[in-house]
Design a protein that fits this description.
Order of helices and strands: HEEEEEEHEHEEHEHEH
Number of helices: 6
Shape: elongated
Number of strands: 11
Radius of gyration: 21 Å
Length: 271
Amino acid sequence: MRTELFNDLLSGKINTGALILLNQKKLTWSVAKDHYKIPVAIVLQYYLPAGAKEISFRISEKFLPDFKTENVVGYVRGISKPDSFIVISAHYDHLGMMGRETYFPGANDNASGISMLLNLASHFSRKQNQPECSIAFIAFAGEEAGLVGSKYYTENPLFDLSKIKFLINLDLLGTGDEGMMVVNATEFPNQFQVLESINNDKKYLLSLKQRGKAKNSDHYYFSELGVPSFFFYTMGGIQAYHDINDKAETLPLTEFEDVFRLIIDFTKHLR
């Protein structure tokens, strides 16, 4: 029912008045490439007085359809196969602010993934760790608005996508109590078997869970164009997501080091 309502709002079918939706659990927020034609407010039900008949509110907003942002790309040149690439990606955007007071820190989503990307870039940039093939590091913008940055990159690549041996996308890596999910595991079973074998041998994570194709992060448009890709996200721990509680001080980083080691070992089998 709520999905139909939001579709009607986006299409403009509902275009007069205002709408207040009641939520009994928690408030979350997202950004988008489009906007509703009327004001919509989502309110925690217990904040409304029982029996309230009238509600007044004031909203000030400005929709910026041509907002500009940028992807950030760097690479470590391979020793023997410089024209063949492994890609490590993560999105560096989050939700910013709502008004002048409400701030969405985005520690897990996705400072954790960017932190992992930077740690891997630091590792592979050291002479003793220089890889056989090149490793590109891409920090995508606009993921939260609908994978905008990664879609743009696949349409305007800096090097031919056919030269990418494998892409590893990193998002939500701040926990790990219940293991890690591998999106596209069922799409690339041979590579997942290698990853799982490494994890079983080294005892890095409690478990690796398999998931199929999903349009839920920046790996998607690459794999749709034939680039072998995994998307890693850790499971368990704190449940903060797209809210004001996704803070650095609450992020346990339970398996951050082990995920780091697992990725390094996995890349050795991709060369």
